[in-house]
Automatic annotation (TrEMBL):
Record's protein name: Tat (Twin-arginine translocation) pathway signal sequence
Domain Gfo/Idh/MocA-like oxidoreductase N-terminal: 43-181
GO molecular function, one term: nucleotide binding
Superkingdom in the source lineage: Bacteria
One Pfam family recorded for the sequence: GFO_IDH_MocA
Lineage, uppermost ranks: Bacteria, Pseudomonadati, Bacteroidota, Bacteroidia, Marinilabiliales
PANTHER family according to UniProt: BCDNA.GH03377, OXIDOREDUCTASE FAMILY PROTEIN
Residue span, Gfo/Idh/MocA-like oxidoreductase bacterial type C-terminal domain: 204-320, 396-464
Amino acid sequence: MKNHQTRRTFIKQTAITATGAALGSRVIASPFSGSILGSNEKIRMGFIGVGNRGSQLLNLFMQNKDCEVAALCDIYEPYLTRDRGAVSPRYLETMNSQIPKMGENFPRPPKIYKDYRELLDDKDIDAVCIATPDHWHALQTVHAIEAGKDIYVEKPLTQTIYEGRKMVEAEASGKQIVAVGLNRRGSASYQRLAAEISGGKLGKVTVARAARVSNMFPNGIGKLNPETPPKDFNWDMWLGPRAYRDYQYNIAPYMFRWWQDYSSQMGNWGVHYMDVIRWMVGETAPVSISAHGGKYVLDHDGDIPDTMQVTFEFASGMIISFAIYEASSGGAIPQGEIELRGTKATVYASERGYSIVPARAGQFQRWDKLTEAEEYVQKDNLLSDGSSGGSTGALIRNFLDCVKNREAPLCTLEDGHRSTSFAHLANIALATGERLQWDADAERFVNSKAANEMLHYEYRKPWKL
């Protein structure tokens, strides 16, 4: 392999037509055909964002022998040099568990970039992993598509619904593999349950429930004044397309999850549950959304609700109820993380397994039971070398395989966009205080001008999508 073009052509020439094991798999169009890429041929990966989640993904990618860590990119220098000793003491004091351990043993030192655009210009990079804050995902994914890279992008996919559709349109114009890191798609337990439900095990499902519970009382992320960021932290680049504001230690690198300009807990956690529920029941989007909640308890700088209850209604005759409880504790679902209630049975499920409980006859009914009880316990998903990587590891392994065989990944960009849209719909419904009617084809609200104005925001110059 004398140059990048030869290498990229070789990888593309491994495309074959095959029937995927996952429902809805497709083959990415390619003008080439040939044999499957040899197991010794390494996919050269560039990692954009190697903080908390980025480092977790980096280490899971490294468990695959056909993956080479070719480049790292971040706006915080200690994350690039992989030197935990150089990390700001304030970061270590307030969020020690969210600061990566680093110290990885790279067989070959990766190239270092402080600007992701320079990494994308590197002709030796085959694919990228994007694990930056949410408000960066759309720009970086579209730019990576334009650069001809295959992409693994972390959830939530976007910060706005408009961004998601623009990403899907960009993908359609190219030939790149784009996988979204909604890790439950890689769960063997949920894959098994999806087949059970589609086979009618639960009957007609009319209600699904899930919740995120984390008691942050009383201080939340605290109250701080604007300050100068650490000298080796590029705050302007971190903000990117978002409006300029002065740095605060309780925004970046991790606590942005509690600031609506950069993320939300509906996006951070809700997207996981919305994705797996709509996958289980075969839904695409709701027709109606309503939400209640607010900052009821936490006296902190974060500007997202600590208590929130959302209802999504579907044309098929079903509702999803999702809640965020960050001012209390205790389990919200009797077992597992999601509950699906059907006419024949109710299922409680998680990545660890599921329990199917037969329904009991209600008033005026004479039947005993309509289905059989079932308990399923899932052992850890195993990677190709026999090591445990969980569902995320399985999703990464699937992505690397798709780079070689050009099949659609377990979680496509369209699926990632549709699932992430649930978070945006919920946040918009709460902000407007309206029961919103949603046209999923046009991706517009049919009854609220105010809600439609929240489908996107104006990027800070010079950034544009």
